[in-house]
Design a protein that fits this description.
By secondary structure, the protein is mainly β. Strands 10-11-12-13-26-22-21-16-19 form a 9-stranded antiparallel beta sheet. The protein has a 5-stranded antiparallel beta sheet with strand order 18-17-20-23-24, with no helix packed on it.
Length: 346
Amino acid sequence: MTTGGPIERIEIARGGYRAELLTLGATLRRLEVPGRDGKAANVVLGYRDLADYRAHPRYYGAVAGRYANRIGGARFSLDGTEYRLTANEGANSLHSGPKGFDLQDWTVEARDAHSVTFALVSPHLDHGFPGNLHVRVRYALEADGLAINFRATTDRATVINLTHHAYFNLAGEGSGTTILDHVLQIPASRITPVDTELIPIGALRAVEATPFDFRTPKPIGRDIEIADTQLKLGRGYDHNFVLDGASGKIRRIATLFESVSGRVMEVHSTEPGVQFYTGNYLADGAPGTGGGIYPARGGLCLEPQKFPDSPNKPDFPSARLDPGQEYRHDMAFRFRTAGDVKEAFG
């Protein structure tokens, strides 16, 4: 584990797709995707100046870990031992503390024209987490988008939850638009409702007849201002959706459509949940990749994951990893174009 070293840029390309990645945070800085007119645009948010990734961290395009999302009270117990974590969001741990995987210098282990594999060793008690953790993440451009594979092993029992924290705007990073007109579908009939600190309360809430029902495609902005307690707590959407069906095999977990460009993005993953965040706090940051300042809700995140605070919620899917096991999370952002909503969602 190292921090503060030089940041290397790596480009990979295939067909009409091009990606730029950084060794800091194993970060996806740019992802160029063709639109309906055949012209490619960068669809992920990032910083213009590489120094801002350290100076003003917002997890743009980074690998979030060791434990993505929140752990309440910045502590958990495992096999009778309590582990106290480094708090960085009030009394809680968000994405594993102030120098999580997003601010670590990863090593390039392998690369070719279409793919790159990053590696990182997180030492025992890094930010309070047990076990020496060996992590790899592979990005590979395929015929229809970007596949991401996470792998990890440990030398003692620990918890792990890795995801990718890209912010997307399918109209293009420099469009100056919000994502409120994007149309979204998530096959999830429940969410994990949260308390005032955005920690899951442990129960599940049905999405039916609530602003959280995205089972039928709808514009993201349609219900975001409804007087709902959960929306008020997150100042918009910032919640884990409990995906319908069995996890463990890669399957489509969300579909997003932007009508002007015609871009459709499908998110695929093996995980049981997905955090949907509407970039509610993006305004007034440092200049973005294209030089502009992003507005609030100028990008959105769809982060496949174990549930937040799972180490403290025995009824949630387990995030435990033991020696001799391999942690695996496979996900992908797959793209196509469509003429309208009907074609986009079939």
